[in-house]
Amino acid sequence: MDTRTAVQKRIFELCQENRITINKLAHLSGISPSTLKNIVYGRSKNPGVVTIKYLCDGLGITLIDFFDSELFRELEKETSI
Known about the structure:
This protein is an all-alpha fold.
């Protein structure tokens, strides 16, 4: 799994845990629903850490909480050429 996919899956996990929709998370986070949908449906290739921080703020968690998941512990090495 690559980092982008892990971020997408983590967002879906957190929405399920909090029983909220993607649109609700966007509203709570102060980002546009289209921005969040671009991230979770793979149209955004590189979501920034600031955007992820907004999502964390909307969920009431820290960046550490967001990345503290098996999804990120088992990432394959990625290289850019």
